[in-house]
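fold-stage: in
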Amino acid sequence: QGKFTLLRDTRTDGSFLVHHFLSFYLRAGCKVCFVALLQSFSHYNIVAQKLGVSLTAAKERGQLVFLEGLKSCLDLLFGEEEEEQSGQPSPLQFISESASNLKALFDFVQTSLTPADSDSWKGPVLLVDDLSVLLSLGATPVAVLDFIHYCRVTVCSQLKGNIVVLVHSNEDSEDEENELVVTSLCHHSDLILWVEGLATGFCKDVHGQIKIIRRLSLELMAEQDHVQIYQYKIQDKNVTFFARGLSAAVL
């Protein structure tokens, strides 16, 4: 409880970790607010069904609050029907405003995860896929970092919940704003799961490597961060992890 987990991917796609955490927290009985900026609801639902979870059922029973970023962006840019019906500003209101202000998105997260008296969920979870999209939509790095800061205070500190955020990064990239956000988030994370493509290129039996960084230095114990490195292969319904150089194809 109260942990901030950063999912970072470089030269590969780390979305399999998002699907893992989404199904994991729903099975655990947690209240989940999923800010999905990268794919449609049907995409996440199809993958979740393979993992034994129904997002539609979770939404109906109030366990999952799903923000479909692609649909919200289209509604904001080409029509205002959704806002007029609900009477509430869109969480992605900043797209149509001159000021890069993510307060509406934070209010959406806070409202979604603040427990009601009738709620019996184990704990709140905020899941974001993927934070880099906010920069592409016009938000400034400072606004994105402020949004994450306020979410950490509310979800992690006050509600004793967890936050899981995916960001794309590329050390050779000229996108300075994105690298600034990624570096800042790394400094504040309790756990970093850094997925990288193989330096040697594509391999049929090894899809990449994952670096697990436990930030012990954040706990004021003056210890070095604990780092573990594994390689992995993504299968239809699960992922296989193994030590570097010990894939089934090699052995």
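fold-stage: in (second)
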Amino acid sequence: KELLEKHRSLFTLQWEGVTGSDHVPSQAEWEQLLTNCSAFLFYGMERFLSHVLLDSLVAMNIPKCRLMILLDLVHSKESYQRIANSGIHKNCQHVAVEGPTETAMLLSLTGVGSIIANQWFTTLRENAERLDILSESLLSMGRTTGQTVRVLQE
């Protein structure tokens, strides 16, 4: 919410979605947000695909989404328990597809233009720092996604 306030004058008036602890989005809400966006930011716990049904994502066509930023791969006791409980119903191949590389490939096949995502598990603090750098670089400085990723690497 601090970043939304910080960059309010730039592009955030056109942003829509779920922030904070409003509620857990339904599958229909995820689909609506994904299919109607030009850019998509996921900043949350565990893996992005643990929140979106794989079958729904594979069937989607989202070429309007030019950039997807996935700041995920964070564990907490609660999130790990939720994932463990939902994982009971998944087979090994399904769980393997939820990896970062596989997720990027699936999103690319659905039409997403560029994907910035974590490769390894991280902390909330590190993701918050990444989000601040991404927002500053993309929104305030007007850097390209390639230039922004380079800044993150440094």
